[in-house]
Structure formats: C-alpha cells, structure tokens
Amino acid sequence: MRGFFVTFEGGEGSGKTTQLKTLLGHLRSAGRDVVETRDPGGTAIGNQIRGLLLDGENARMDSLTELLLYEASRAQLVQEIVQPVLAAGRILLCDRFTDSTVAYQGYGRGVDLDLIGRLNASAARGIRPDLTFFLDLDPVVGLERVKRRLAPSRAPRDRLEGEALAFHERVRQGFRALAATEPERVIALDAVQSLAELAAEIRRRVDARLGPAEAAPGTRRRSE
Ligand code: Z5A
Asked: How far are the Cα atoms of 14, 45, 74, 76, 158 from residue 42, in angstroms, in the given order?
C-alpha cells in the first residue's frame, strides 16, 4: 500500500518548519504513523551535502554544481527514506522537496527548467508529493523573521539567505507559478496569517485527504 507524501515549501522564514512540526503533532496525536524529514538532508550523506550547500564560505559555488548537489542529496533521501516510508504505507512530511529546486535554481538562478525537471524526476525516482503546502510570504517579511531569530551582530546565516532581495522575489514567483500550474497538488497559503490560522487550514486539508484515522494510510491500530 502506498502511503501519503506531504511537502512544505516557501521562502526563508515563511514558517514551513513550524507548520510541519505542528501537523506532525496533530497527526501523531490522532494515532497516525508519520515520519518527518527534510531536503536537503534527512540522511547521513545528505546532511554532509547540506553542509556544503549552506556554508557561507562556498559563495563561489557554480549554479550547476549547486543543482547537482541538491539532486544528489535528494537521490539519497528518496532511496533511504522516501521510497521505503511510502512503500510501507506510512505518512511522510518533508521540509522542501523538488519544487524548491524549480523555484531556487530555476527561477532564482536561471538554470534551465527542462534540465531541472529531468534531474528532479530522476533523483525522486518519479515520486511526487500527494500534497504540497506553499507558504507564500513577502521575502522582506520572511527575511526579517529569520533575522530576528539571530543575534543582531551576526552575518546572514547561510549562503542563500545572503542573496539579494531580487533573488528571493524571483524564487517567490517560481513557487507561485508552480501553484498556478498544479493547483490540485500545490496549496498556496497566505503566510502572514497567524500560526494558529495556518495550522488549522493545513490540518483541515490533510484530514480531508486522509479520511477517518482508522481507515487511512499511516494509521496505527490501537492493538499494535
Ligand atoms: N534549497 C534550494 O536552493 N534548492 C533546493 O532544491 C532545496 C533547498 C531543497 C535550506 O532550506 C536552503 O536550501 C533554503 C533553500 C535551499 N535556502 N536558504 N537559505 P531550509 O528549509 O533548511 O531553510 P530555510 O528556508 O532558510 O528555513 P527557515 O529559515 O527555517 O524558514 P521556515 O522553515 O520557513 O520558517 P520557520 O523556521 O518555521 O519560522 C521562521 C521564524 O518565523 C520563526 O522564528 C517562527 O517562529 C516565525 N514564524 C513562523 N510562522 C510565523 C507566522 N505565521 N507569523 C509570525 N511568525 C512566524
């Protein structure tokens, strides 16, 4: 039985991680069998690649090098986590996935979108999320939220956060284009809403797709 694959997408500080954790808590308290992961990362090899990608010292990284590293991390994640979790009929929540590559490397950096499409499909072994929440936020607000999390004297946290605002605006356009092209899968949410409002909307949509806890994929029976 195939499980259920949910991804969270958006710009920096849009609230993806917060909402993923909130949904995770909700699904677990309903007795569902849920796994969480992140992209890039999620595996030992992927976390080493993530370190390379986000290291502010690697400012000179070539766009194609960057793309291939994201895809390499993803290939490992899919082989080690995504495929087995979904094959076991479990629910998987992932912080970013292939849409981020379209938005950041495609719209942000200007890498060829056809090439990205082919590499995304290969790395993901053709697996696509069942549902994607795109937290849509003005990058000025998102970057401000991230800055507030840091000590005032600290430089930008990583390589991509240090990019010019125009880059983050192109990334946002990329996510918006994806939501417009695939409205059934990609749910765009206005991320200026409160944490509670967003969480309620996400919960409502996921519960509607999964159906009653006892009958849905990823449900752990009480006797198990
Ligand atoms: N990347 C890429 O380029 N290509 C790819 O293919 C992939 C990724 C897969 C790492 O991602 C980087 O990888 C990322 C894109 C690139 N670029 N950068 N930098 P990441 O997901 O690990 O890092 P991130 O996007 O920078 O995550 P983040 O800064 O942690 O943002 P977030 O997860 O969206 O937000 P958050 O941690 O949940 O919340 C941020 C703060 O805002 C926090 O203090 C919250 O309490 C606050 N917050 C959250 N929601 C709200 C609301 N609704 N109101 C007010 N305050 C809020």
From this structure: 20, 8, 9, 9, 18
**224 with 218: CB under 8 angstroms?**
no
Is the minimum distance from the CB of 52 to ligand 1 under 6 angstroms? no
The pTM of the whole model exceeds 0.85: yes
- Asked whether 15 lines ligand 1 (CB < 6 A), one says yes
Is 40:67 a contact under the CB 8 Å cutoff? no
The Cβ of residue 25 has, within 10 Å, a number of other Cβ atoms equal to 12
pLDDT in tens, 70-90: 999 999 999 999 999 999 999
Answer yes or no: is the C-beta of 12 below 6 A from any ligand 1 atom: yes
CA-nearest of 59, 56, 83, 54 to 69 is: 54
Name the stretches of the chain with pLDDT < 70: 1, 150-157, 161-162, 215-216, 220-224
Probe target for ligand 1 pocket from 7, 8, 17, with the most ligand atoms within 8 Å of CB: 17
Q: Which two tokens stand for residue 145?
A: 């939220």
Length of the chain in terms of residues written: 224
Residue 91: C-alpha distances to residues 27, 135, 183, 210 (Å): 9, 20, 21, 10
Using one digit for the tens of pLDDT, what is the confidence trace for 146-174? 888 765 555 556 777 667 999 999 999 99
Distance CA 80, CA 207 (A): 27
